[in-house]
Amino acid sequence: MKKAFAGLTDKQIAESFVLPVKLSIRQQAEASAQLATARAKSLEQAKPVDKLLARILQLRFQLEDYLKSESYQPTRTFGHFLKEYQQLGGKKRKEFAYEINIHETLLSQLISDRREPGEQIFIRLELHSNKTIPASYWFRLVEKKKAYQLQHDSKIRQREKKNVKKSLALQEDDLPVF
Amino acid sequence: MTIRELRSGNKLAVSVEPVTDEDFKKLTVKRYFFNWKKLKGQPLLFKLVHPVSGDILGLMHLLDFPQEDRIEVKLLAVSVENKGVGKHFDRIAGNLIAFTCRLAIAKYGYKACISLIPKTELKPHYIRAYGMMDAGLQVYLDGRPLFNLLKKYIQ
Q1: How far apart are CA B155 and CA B141, in angstroms?
Q2: Are the beta carbons of B125 and A20 separated by less than 8 Å?
Q3: CB within 8 Å: B138 and A15
Q4: Which chain B positions have a beta carbon within 8 Å of A54's beta carbon?
Q5: ipTM for the whole complex
Q6: Residue B66 is part of which domain span?
Q7: What is the C-alpha to C-alpha distance for residues A78 and A99, in angstroms, rounded to an integer?
Q8: Each residue of A128-178: pLDDT tens digit?
Q9: DSSP annotation of A177
Q10: Please, are residues A145 and A79 in contact by the beta-carbon 8 Å criterion?
Q11: Assign residue A44 a region: left if phi > 0, alpha if psi is -120 to 50, beta otherwise?
């Protein structure tokens, strides 16, 4: 092992490093086969609750990554993620609507983004997921869409121009470029 | 995701981010043990960053195997002052490995797996430190043990 690791115990090395290991072609094939066998056994032994947990964590992380990113994707709406959430539990729409105590029609409208969700929906989804997906994530998803729309709505700017009688005495040249 | 300053016992929230071209100027062998510059251009290179100073405390290179729903930790190192007995912070490597678990779950759902090829003498320590499972030449995490590591470091 490298000189740089002299004086470190194996435990200390493992706690701070993953070292490069070169395998021969034969060893690589052996390693792949061994891992495939071990994983097949793990998957076989996985309980339905483990699969559900993995799916809900997957949705949570996808939501987090999308909320963190600066880009807006028109297809990644509240309705899109709500549909994913409903489906990951293997629930029919009617059953899921019952579980969060809303009418099936309202659920369909929310999924197709024809209705805006209220705060109570965000909270019910948080409770339904046993807090795995916080209400604030659902809220921020709706906010992200609104922020994008507001930023790109030229009609409303045109319409509201007449209501601003006087603006700050700044010339366009004075302003930094955003 | 937090690391712990050993002198004060304080916890610090940290983030793991992709390594940028600018970072490579700082990635010396003296401080980070390996020639990371050789990996410039590789897609899955990450750094764990101090929240205040922006200092890079740990680095990791991953390989993605989409056909196997698996991500392999190919190389990982903490910075020189964070190894061994006198280290300033702990949990750096654990956070980087947990970050890999998060990536795998986000991409592969319930089939997600992370693995690494250990030096033989280090294998029992990876198993003990991160709850990894023994698959012969490799150690790996999937299913419940993978969730447990996520819970310990991220959630």
Answers
A1: 17
A2: no
A3: no
A4: 105, 109-110, 112, 143, 147
A5: 0.92
A6: 2-153
A7: 19
A8: 999 999 999 999 999 999 999 999 999 999 999 999 999 888 887 777 766
A9: P
A10: no
A11: alpha
Domain A59-68+75-151 class, CATH top level = mainly alpha
Structure tokens belonging to residue A156: 């409303």
How far the first Cα of chain B sits from its last, in Å, is 7
Q: Do B116 and A18 touch (CB under 8 A)?
A: yes
DSSP bridge pairs for B134:
B139
| Structure token digits, residue A23 | 């395998």
Amino acid identity at A101: N
Number of domains in chain B: 1
Structure-token match 């409208």, residue found: A109
Q: What is the mean pLDDT of each run of 10 residues along chain A (178 residues)?
A: 81 94 94 95 91 94 94 94 94 96 97 95 97 96 94 93 90 73
The full set of domain ranges for chain A reads: 59-68+75-151
pTM listed for this prediction = 0.90
